[in-house]
Write a structure and sequence with these properties.
The protein is of the alpha+beta class. It has one domain. It has one helix at about 5-40, and strands at about 40-45, 50-55, 60, 70. The strands form 2 sheets. The protein has a two-stranded antiparallel sheet. A two-stranded antiparallel sheet has the order 3-4. It is rod-shaped and about 75 Å long. The relative contact order is 0.11.
Length: about 80
Amino acid sequence: MELVLNDFVRLVLFSTLVCVAVFGAFSRFLHWRSERKLKRLVTVCRLCGHVFMNRNDTELVHCDACHALNLRNGNGKLG
């Protein structure tokens, strides 16, 4: 079987499309994982609105700016 130019161009285009799709999916997965990790570490103070990183595992954390107690996972949840 002989490979003609038309088939070669289709093969190159299809393989490029597959590579872009695979790299795009992998990049989105890495971005999603880093955003999820960052969301776990970032805390917004309920009193002054200061955003700070919290690396310890305690449920209540102290704000760096106003020293108020904040819930670790209390960001954005009502009630």
